[in-house]
Write a structure and sequence with these properties.
Largest sheet: 6 strands, mixed
Oligomer: single chain
Shape: globular
CATH topology of the largest domain: Nucleotidyltransferase, domain 5
CATH superfamily of the largest domain: Ribonuclease H-like superfamily/Ribonuclease H
Order of helices and strands: HHHHHEEEEHEHEHH
Number of helices: 9
Number of strands: 6
Distance between the termini: 25 Å
Number of domains: 2
């Protein structure tokens, strides 16, 4: 799909959502001047910009101002655009929830959970850093085998890679403590995790509170009564969350914390999750159209 067609398709989806949700125009604002760019246009720029790798307000604004001025003719100053984009953080979250529901992320019976580090600076500057003071902390990343100073992200996906939820905590917060916030009243069925979620008592408590069956691989020195085939499928399926985290880190730079407060960090992470989900949504649509076209050709 050409990039121009993709921008128009994203705008149509966002605009339809805003109209159906009664979020269009001045319904979002009680006073002040109406912005020159519509909220649908700003959300479209945020989504497409993130998908293209422009993960800062300045980068997104400059890209559309230079290359797509004829589509967004009323684009103004960068500060006004950034302010409007930040104020749409709740709408971005609601749009993500809508897309996730349409993709079946909440109704699927199999989900996967995992965490990833979000360092705020290099180790040598940690003692002098003022960012998120009192919130950031030290922790150890087992996958990278290194210590870091910052925050910790926790992501929940379904078995098709759609993000159903995300939480950000201090770096030293246990992943097991965050699971309840991620899954409570949101999903049902089976949840897969790595060895960080080990503990039969913990798994039993989680099932008693939420009805969710948490399954993890065991250490080599632990006895496993489950069938070897089930364990192999569990391990291979759980790796999908590592793929999704890799996409968020490499394609959307979610590990980088450019924000200086929690509110702007929420805005930043929310639009990355929205862009990732929107990409899956359009891949599903294009995949169905390709299958339909193939059936017509065969007929």
């Amino acid at each position: 799909m050409p990039i121009e067609d993709f921008i128009i398709a994203v705008f149509c989806q966002v605009d339809d959502f805003l109209k159906k949700s009664n979020f269009c125009g001045r319904a979002l604002r009680k006073r002040g001047f109406e912005p020159k760019l519509s909220d649908a246009e700003v959300l479209t720029m945020m989504i497409v910009g993130e998908m293209l790798g422009y993960d800062t307000d300045k980068g997104i604004w400059r890209y559309f101002r230079q290359h797509w001025r004829f589509l967004f003719q009323k684009i103004g100053s960068r500060t006004n655009w950034s302010r409007q984009a930040s104020n749409l953080w709740m709408i971005a979250q609601k749009l993500h929830q809508e897309l996730a529901c349409r993709l079946g992320a909440r109704t699927n019976k199999l989900h996967i959970v995992d965490g990833f580090p979000m360092p705020i600076c290099v180790i040598t500057r940690a003692s002098r850093s003022r960012l998120f003071k009192g919130i950031a902390s030290w922790s150890y990343c087992a996958s990278k085998k290194e210590y870091y100073y910052g925050l910790h992200g926790h992501v929940l996906i379904d078995f098709e890679g759609v993000i159903a939820g995300i939480e950000v905590t201090t770096a030293n917060t246990s992943e097991r403590e965050t699971v309840l916030d991620l899954v409570e009243n949101k999903i049902q069925g089976t949840l897969l995790g790595d060895m960080g979620y080990l503990g039969q008592e913990y798994q039993n408590d989680l099932k008693a509170q939420t009805g969710i069956d948490l399954q993890t691989a065991l250490r080599s020195n632990m006895q496993d009564d489950r069938s070897p085939k089930f364990v192999r499928v569990l391990k291979s399926t759980r790796r999908l969350v590592e793929t999704v985290i890799g996409q968020l880190v490499d394609g959307f730079n979610i590990e980088k914390i450019w924000a200086r407060d929690l509110w702007h960090l929420t805005c930043r992470i929310g639009r990355k999750i929205l862009a990732h989900t929107m990409g899956i949504f359009f891949n599903r649509i294009l995949g169905r159209k390709s299958l339909a076209l193939a059936d017509l050709i065969e007929a």
